[in-house]
Design a protein that fits this description.
Layout: H1 3-18, H2 21-46, H3 50-64, H4 78-94, H5 96-107, H6 113-151, H7 163-180, H8 183-192, H9 198-203, H10 205-219, H11 224-258
Amino acid sequence: MNELPAASVKTEAEHLDQMPVMQHLIILRQYLFKIVGVTIALFFCLLPFRNYTYQLLSEPLRQQLPATSSMIATDVTATFMAPFKLNLFVALVLAMPFIIYQLWSFIRPALYEKERFLAVPLLAGSIALFYLGIAFAYFITLPAILHFFISVSPETVAPMTDINSYLSFCLKLFLVFGLTFEIPIITLILILIGVVSTQSLVEKRRFIVVGCFFVAMFVTPPDALSMVMLAVPMWMLFEVGLLLGKLLEKRKSKNEEAA
């Protein structure tokens, strides 16, 4: 009874090896069509709310601006294009679970049963951490950064941010934090595939911490507050991934001893 799944997986893997490259590309195209279709559908569903969505995005800035200041549009098309771009970004973010699922469906036949068992929680965790990173950037990092920049502006200068510039700044910040919060997943994958071990990571911890601050210095705005607010979570997330990796290694060693 236990040999049937393994034999089935082996047969499926052999079938995939025999498929020509063009057949793989055709199957991948089908999944990509589904991804594009769902993203476009979400985009048009959210389109009537694009201005309201931009108001939510600009709320942290509008709370920091003086009463005599407001956001401006330096381009004729900015009042239309900025909410339009934000609407596309929101559609992609909302479609992320479906996108991940489609990519998982494409690579799933090439994985063994054990790899599939590990991949499901890793994929679910990566989606949750990506959303958590965006939420952290919006509710914590963005207000703090805006408050810092506006508070240090000269009294004779009235801050009036262009809506396109503000949108680009926010989207960059969201993507950086969304990807940064994937560090535990990346750490676990590197440990699982044997590229690194928890012992080697512990020995190189000081260099990794310095690397976190070095990376944060280049991907955040040029101020110490932004760098610290990204580097410290990167460090903490690395520690979380390292802890989970140690638990996996202990579990693996116990299974080997039991076997």
